[in-house]
Predict the 3D structure of the following.
Amino acid sequence: MTDALDPADMREQYRTKELSPADLAPDPIGQFALWFKETAASPAIHEPNAMVVSTATPDGRPSSRTVLLKHYDGAGFVFFTNYGSRKGTELAANPYVSLLFPWHPLARQVIVTGRAARTSREETAAYFRTRPHGSQLGAWASEQSRVIPSRQALLDRYEELAARHPDRGEVPVPPEWGGFRVVPEAVEFWQGHENRLHDRLRYVRAGEGWRVERLAP
Ligand SMILES: Cc1cc2nc3c(=O)[nH]c(=O)nc-3n(C[C@H](O)[C@H](O)[C@H](O)COP(=O)(O)O)c2cc1C
């Protein structure tokens, strides 16, 4: 193990300009839009819309996975998945959820906590129609999170569907597939600084608007 990489020796340079409440947009969606744009412009970040979604069973057993953010606005943050998957069944029983955007190369992180609700079938269908034909078939082919006998079983199912729905044919939306909209209750913007004196500014709902509080790093 002498050549092993020791994570304790790793140190990153963080930012110098502080983030103050006066710099923030009046609401967290506006602030998210600013950071998201900067993140998307950075060649260091591969998929800026990738986020870690954490859910939990009603008795508090957590689970996390990466999904892609597909839409956001004042109503919330939207992603698409299989409702029968682990995350889908956990959210059906317990809607509390956390979304984490790990923008490490920019020394930034955004954490959204709130409640998830299914998008309407119309909204799901509108998005499904924009997906490439192959991913539409893929959504049908996979009973996400189930144990399967082999990769070949998945490929066979895909081929069967591809034969049934040739390239230009419209693929209906799988009944178990759709979106979740996460309505935020709090959104934290984290920015790294030297000596671990990081900025953490959190928007929390206050009546119709938001208040911002600073957290110890
Ligand atoms: C970069 C990346 C993007 C992903 N995007 C999605 C997505 O948008 N929707 C989805 O259901 N799974 C997505 N996945 C797969 C999930 O991480 C996960 O394996 C899958 O949703 C099953 O999760 P579950 O069993 O915890 O429900 C993505 C994985 C990665 C690494």
Observations:
- The longest strand covers residues 177-191.
- Residues 45 and 105 are 7 Å apart (CA to CA).
- The two ends are 33 Å apart (CA to CA).
